[in-house]
UniProtKB/TrEMBL annotation:
<dbReference type="InterPro" id="IPR001206">
    <property type="entry name" value="Diacylglycerol_kinase_cat_dom"/>
</dbReference>
<protein>
    <submittedName>
        <fullName>Phosphatase PAP2 family protein</fullName>
    </submittedName>
</protein>
<keyword id="KW-1133">Transmembrane helix</keyword>
<dbReference type="InterPro" id="IPR045540">
    <property type="entry name" value="YegS/DAGK_C"/>
</dbReference>
<dbReference type="InterPro" id="IPR016064">
    <property type="entry name" value="NAD/diacylglycerol_kinase_sf"/>
</dbReference>
<dbReference type="InterPro" id="IPR017438">
    <property type="entry name" value="ATP-NAD_kinase_N"/>
</dbReference>
<feature type="domain" description="DAGKc">
    <location>
        <begin position="229"/>
        <end position="362"/>
    </location>
</feature>
<feature type="region of interest" description="Disordered">
    <location>
        <begin position="1"/>
        <end position="29"/>
    </location>
</feature>
<keyword id="KW-0378">Hydrolase</keyword>
<keyword id="KW-0472">Membrane</keyword>
<keyword id="KW-0812">Transmembrane</keyword>
<keyword id="KW-1003">Cell membrane</keyword>
<dbReference type="Pfam" id="PF19279">
    <property type="entry name" value="YegS_C"/>
</dbReference>
<dbReference type="Pfam" id="PF00781">
    <property type="entry name" value="DAGK_cat"/>
</dbReference>
<dbReference type="InterPro" id="IPR036938">
    <property type="entry name" value="PAP2/HPO_sf"/>
</dbReference>
<dbReference type="InterPro" id="IPR000326">
    <property type="entry name" value="PAP2/HPO"/>
</dbReference>
<dbReference type="Pfam" id="PF01569">
    <property type="entry name" value="PAP2"/>
</dbReference>
Length: 540
C-alpha cells in the first residue's frame, strides 16, 4: 500500500514589492558607540602623526618642559615669582592662577581619570630621545598636566597685562603639546584636560570677580596741565615711611616702595622739586606750601598721604599726580598707576581726568561752613577702626602684616557693635564702610571701582554682634571678597546722615583714624579733583 508522506499544501506567501531586506535603524546607544569609535580612531591617527613628526630642537626642549610641570611645580614656582613682585596686579594673577590649579587638578586626577580609565598610548612610534623619563602609569583621560596649565594660564589672563599673560599662555600650550609629543597622552586627553582647566580658571570669577585694570574717569575736556620733559613745575612730597620704608629710623633693611619711587623720579624728572617729610612735620602745612608754588602737585606715598595731597590740590586748584609708594595704593591703582614709571608716563602724556571726592562733616556747624574731612577711597567705623588702632600700636614691634593679623584676632575677641542712627533709623553696627563711588567687589570690604565719577556713595554695613558673624566679617576685611554675611546690608546713595555715641565717632578715612562729633553727614564733590591717570575715558 502506498503511503502519501506529503503534508497539506502550503499557502502561497505574499511578498511585498521592494528590497528583500531592510537596514535596521541603530539605537541611540549604538549611535553613541559609533561616534566614540570614530573619535577614537581620529584621536589615534592624530597621535600617530605627532609621534612621527620631527621638530628639530624640540626633542630636547619639550620633554623638559613636560617634566617641569609635574605636580604643578612650574606653575607654583611662577606664582611665587609673581607674588614677590611689588605690583598688586601680578600678585592677584598669581593667586588666581594657583587657586584655579588647586581646583582643576583634583577634578581631573581624582574624578575624571577614575571615571573614564582610558589606557595610555602605545609609544612604539615615539622616538626614544623624547621619552627621557619613566612614562606615567595612571589613566590617560583627561590630561592632568594640560588641565593645570590651562587653569593657571586662564587665571593669570583674568588679572595680568597681556605682556605677561601671553608668555604664560604660550608656556601652557607648550606643556599641553609636550604631553602628546612625548607619548604620555592622546590629543583628546589634552583637549579635555585643557577645557576643564580653562573652566576652572573662569570659575574663580564666581567667588572672586576679576577687577578692571583702570577705573573710568571723566576726561578733563579743555583743561591742560603744564607738562615738561624734565619735570620743571612738579613739586613732589615724599613720605618715606610709606610702603615699608624705614622713614629714617634705620629699621628697614630694604628700601620701601616710596624710596624706590623717588629714586626713579629723580632719574626721569630731574628738574622736579622733591620734599621729604620729617617724622614730626605738619603734613597739611607741607602740602599747602608745596601746592602754592606747584604747577603739578605730586604725592609719593600711601593712601593716607594721598588724602592730604588731595586736600591741598583741591584748595589751590592744581592737578594731582599720584605716585604709588604705599602698601595698598588703592587710589593710585584705581587710576591705573601701579608703578612709579606708569605715573611718570601719565604725566608726560598729559592724561588728565576728573574724579569725585567724598567727605564727612559735622552737622553742628552752619550750612556750608562745616569742616569737611575728605576721603578718596573709603571711610569706616566700628570694628575696622579698632583694628587700625591696634595695628598701629603693634606695627613698630611686629611689622605691618603680622601686626594686622594680631590686631584682627584681638578685634574679633573684644569688639562690640556701635549703636548709631543711620538716616533716622537706630542700628547696632559692628562693621561699616562708606565708599567714594560704587565698588565692584562684593562683601563688606570694598576693594575696586569701575568708575571714579558716578556721584554716589557705596554704603555697606554688618549690623550684628554675634560671634560667628564676627569671624566671617573679619575674614572679609582681610580678604575683601565674601558675598554673604549675616546682618550684611548694602545700598547706594548720594548722601548719608549718621548719629553715633555721645562721646563722638571714630572714623577711619583712607586708613587714617579721625575723631569726629557724634552727628555727621556724608556727601560728595562730583568730579572736583583733577588727577593724572592712564588714558582717562570720556563718559559722554
Amino acid at each position: 500500500m502506498r503511503v502519501n508522506h506529503r503534508g497539506p499544501r502550503p499557502r502561497s506567501l505574499s511578498v511585498p514589492a521592494g528590497p528583500l531586506f531592510r537596514r535596521r535603524r541603530p539605537s541611540s546607544g549604538e549611535t553613541r558607540t559609533g561616534v566614540l569609535a570614530r573619535l577614537g580612531r581620529v584621536d589615534r591617527w592624530a597621535f600617530d602623526r605627532v609621534a612621527a613628526a620631527r621638530l628639530p630642537g624640540l626633542e630636547y626642549v619639550l620633554p623638559r618642559v613636560s617634566r617641569a610641570a609635574d605636580h604643578g611645580v612650574l606653575w607654583f614656582t611662577t606664582a611665587g615669582v609673581l607674588a614677590l613682585s611689588r605690583r598688586a596686579r601680578l600678585r592677584r594673577a598669581a593667586l588666581r592662577g594657583s587657586v584655579a590649579v588647586a581646583v582643576a587638578s583634583p577634578v581631573v586626577n581624582l574624578l575624571g581619570k577614575q571615571a573614564f580609565r582610558r589606557k595610555r598610548p602605545v609609544v612604539d612610534l615615539v622616538p626614544p630621545i623624547r621619552i627621557r623619563w619613566k612614562l606615567p602609569t595612571s589613566h590617560a583621560f583627561p590630561s592632568g598636566h594640560s588641565a593645570s596649565a590651562a587653569a593657571f594660564a586662564m587665571g593669570v589672563a583674568l588679572e595680568a597685562p597681556a605682556a605677561l599673560a601671553g608668555p604664560v599662555a604660550l608656556t601652557a600650550a607648550a606643556v599641553a603639546f609636550s604631553r602628546v609629543y612625548t607619548g604620555a597622552h592622546y590629543p583628546g586627553d589634552v583637549l579635555a584636560g585643557a577645557g576643564i582647566g580653562a573652566l576652572a580658571g573662569l570659575g574663580t570669577r564666581l567667588v572672586w570677580p576679576a577687577r578692571p585694570p583702570v577705573a573710568l574717569v571723566v576726561r578733563a575736556e579743555g583743561e591742560e596741565a603744564r607738562v615738561t620733559a624734565d619735570g620743571r613745575g612738579v613739586v613732589a612730597v615724599l613720605n618715606p615711611c610709606s610702603g615699608g620704608g624705614s622713614g629714617g629710623n634705620g629699621r628697614g633693611f630694604l628700601p620701601g616702595n616710596a624710596e624706590l619711587a623717588v629714586g626713579l623720579i629723580r632719574q626721569e624728572l630731574p628738574a622736579a622739586e622733591i620734599i621729604e617729610l620729617e617724622p614730626d612735620q605738619d603734613l597739611d602745612k607741607v602740602f599747602e606750601e608745596a601746592a602754592e608754588r606747584a604747577d603739578v602737585l605730586a604725592v609719593i606715598g600711601g593712601d593716607g598721604t594721598v588724602n592730604a595731597g588731595a586736600r591741598a590740590a583741591l584748595k589751590h586748584d592744581v592737578p594731582l599726580l599720584v605716585v604709588p609708594g604705599g602698601t595698598f595704593d588703592h587710589f593710585a591703582r584705581a587710576l591705573g598707576l601701579e608703578t612709579a614709571m606708569q605715573a611718570i608716563t601719565a604725566y608726560r602724556r598729559g592724561c588728565l581726568g576728573r574724579v569725585d571726592v567724598a567727605y564727612v562733616a559735622p552737622v553742628s556747624g552752619a550750612p556750608g561752613q562745616e569742616e569737611e574731612h575728605l576721603f578718596l577711597n573709603t571711610a569706616s567705623f566700628g570694628a575696622y577702626t579698632e583694628l587700625v588702632d591696634r595695628r598701629e600700636r603693634l606695627e613698630r614691634r611686629l611689622g605691618k602684616w603680622p601686626a594686622l593679623a594680631v590686631a584682627a584676632v584681638r578685634t574679633l575677641r573684644h569688639s562690640e557693635p556701635v549703636k548709631v542712627t543711620v538716616d533716622g533709623r537706630p542700628r547696632r553696627v559692628w562693621l561699616a564702610f562708606v565708599g567714594n563711588c560704587v565698588y565692584g567687589s562684593r562683601g563688606p570690604a570694598p576693594t575696586w571701582r569701575r568708575r571714579m565719577d558716578d556721584g554716589r556713595l557705596d554704603v555697606r554695613m554688618v549690623m550684628t554682634g554675634r560671634r560667628v558673624p564676627r569671624v566671617r566679617a573679619v575674614a572679609a576685611v582681610m580678604a575683601g571678597h565674601l558675598r554673604i554675611i549675616p546682618g550684611y546690608r548694602a545700598w547706594r546713595t548720594g548722601g548719608l546722615e549718621l548719629t553715633g555715641p555721645d562721646g563722638g565717632l571714630r572714623l577711619a578715612r583712607d586708613g587714617e583714624v579721625t575723631s569726629l562729633p557724634a552727628a555727621v553727614r556724608f556727601a560728595k564733590h562730583a568730579t572736583a579733583l583733577r588727577v593724572f591717570a592712564v588714558c582717562p575715558e570720556a563718559t559722554g
